[in-house]
């Protein structure tokens, strides 16, 4: 799609960052428009955090309880109404529809006790294949800019971008992700934990700035998340309060564990952090485990409709980095449970035949051979991702943050491809049998450095 860009000085800086990796972390200080060809609706509007306290900021979308429902979440400093004006662009409909929602008060636990109101408005059952524009705020206190989003077409093949560990500083992948998204390459984003570095810093201003930085993408595409260790402060309250993950299949209602259906896939988000921050209670380990088992049971009965089961969590079960703990003791906890004993996750992946596991935390990219219980389970050595009898694990934590790269140790027998380049992963779920992954390198100007297709005709338990 042709795109015209009109921008100020800060915007030019931002665009320069597309070409110059060293500027990739530059956050514009002025308004930035990237316009689509559709009438007067910018695909992207970056606006610095409004000063008034009344104007919406940190605007983002997530899926509601089904693929054609969307939740709009934003925040204000002051207590305002929660309204969304929605207009259908395709098919055209000049009538604006007004939706009402509600807000919750969120007080940061730092010394300033910085307060904000987080607004949530659900736009239910918008139908397949629509193009909409919306703005949020309220009639009384003013509106945001207009943003545009689409609902998927019936029978679509979902296209996603996924990554973890992207912070305010050194967000290397963000400019290219914006460029991709403005070209309409994705149906949703998966951010696999570790946001902002860290959201609670500067009494929460770092979280506000990060959410504003991703707004140009997240206000247009469902920005689906799971929690990371960098959100641990104040019992993960910044994460829980700022995001709105679906509740359609139960979950904890605080976005820590949940699931949703997307095309031929059932996608699950979990908190790996429950296994490590046990000072916040061990009962949540049990709650999540019990829910996950029930969710997988339900998903396996629905496999004819949603054959792919995909799980995402922050800390990997398999990796070969040389940090001395996360790929050994941390991964052990993830596979075998807390203290290698309680609530082990890998037996669930095996029992229910989870096809794909997405992790981050290590600031690198690593794709494993299909593996179950430490055993490589290739379908065949000629076509290793054809009919695999184990979960395909991928670690994608290299989108860029102030901690920069991690490094690898010697490859493990289950390591299939490794890269320390900054970058992110694209996934397309073509149909019930074919799913592809590709790794984009920001160090190599967007070159695809790894690509695989998983072929699976027999989704189900692994022997
Ligand atoms: Fe992490």
TrEMBL record:
Q: Which UniProt keywords apply?
A: Glycoprotein, Hydrolase, Signal
Write out the catalysed reaction.
a phosphate monoester + H2O = an alcohol + phosphate
Q: Name one GO molecular function term.
A: metal ion binding
The catalytic activity of this protein is classed by the Enzyme Commission as 3.1.3.2
Q: One Pfam family for this entry, by name? A: Metallophos_C
Asked if the keyword Signal belongs to this entry, the reply reads yes
Leader sequence residues = 1-24
Q: Where is the Purple acid phosphatase C-terminal domain?
A: 390-450
Q: Which SUPFAM superfamilies match?
A: Metallo-dependent phosphatases, Purple acid phosphatase, N-terminal domain
What organism is listed for this UniProt entry?
A: Macrostomum lignano
Specify the protein name.
Purple acid phosphatase
Q: Does Signal show up as a keyword for this record?
A: yes
- Membership in a protein family: Belongs to the metallophosphoesterase superfamily. Purple acid phosphatase family.
What Gene3D superfamilies does this protein's entry cite?
3.60.21.10, Purple acid phosphatase-like, N-terminal
What domain of life? Eukaryota
Q: Give start and end of each Calcineurin-like phosphoesterase domain.
A: 159-365
Q: Which residues form the Purple acid phosphatase N-terminal domain?
A: 56-151
| Enzymatic class | hydrolase
